Amino acid sequence: MKTSWRSASLVASAAAVLALTTACGQESGTSSVGSQNVGATAPAGGYGSVGAAGTGASASPSNGYGADGQNSGAQSSAAGKLAVAQNAELGKVLTDGNGMTLYRFDEDTAEPPKSNCDGDCAKAWPPVAANDAAAGAGIDKALLGEVTRADGTKQLTIGGWPAYRYAKDTKAGDITGQGVGGKWFALAPDGKKATLASLPGLSVRKDPKLGDIVVDKNGMTVYRFLKDVAWPKPISNCTGSCLEKWPAVGIVSKDDTKGIEKKGLMGFTRPDGVKQMTVDCWPAYTFSGDTKPGDINGQGVGGTWYAMAPDGKPVGAPKK
Fold this sequence. Notes:
Structural class: mainly beta
Number of strands: 18
Shape: elongated
Helix content: under 10%
Distance between the termini: 43 Å
Strand content: 15-25%
Low-confidence stretches: 1-22, 25-35, 39-64, 69-76
């Protein structure tokens, strides 16, 4: 993210700390490089089934490419209308017209664009054909280009990076190719590696079971403790060993949030000296039992811990 934006966020964070005495319930205070642009806008064409590859395994087998040299039949398939999918672990991920994750290879180059994945590698990682590629919502069409491979075929590039599918991804949304061999990574819409590093301090994720819930800058679920107090001032009743299990969310500025209700969005200093963020004046926590973005293992624990909604309410808590 841009330095100027981060600087502004730091300044705003300082302002948030100064607002700790504010009463709750009140307002506290590129274009592609070196590759030919693809202008086609035709809809996606179907592509072949993916061999016999299974899902869920990302360890590299004997050939070193991660899919045991399987030929998926997808090498010549078109990209179709590219789309942006929201992944709980990686944030925004680029997909083809059928929802299949697109990847990039660290041994390739973007300036100038060049693919270094041929032979068995290209069987495990079918190159995405450049024909019929079109930019969908949230994708800069200027980033779409093409590169001529060693066999003379045209491969789609995103921001100069050659794009691939993975033979072990068998259905839309699969990301089994992520991190294979330490060289293969899902593509972000701008051609960079997909990552959650650009998430705001607090934002909203749509969980398939719970709906809209708050997540922190690492994509981890944020929770509320029913034994806490919000008015007339925030009070956390999670101390000692409880706080080790349910770490307090640190203070972030309002400008470093997205989709969160602004009223009552503030920080406070706990009696133990820890500075904690609140949503609608309710203290916010993460859960040590959640090991990766998208986990909701803290939901309903003890009948007192629930994921936090963007307005600060506990999602799924029993009505009083």
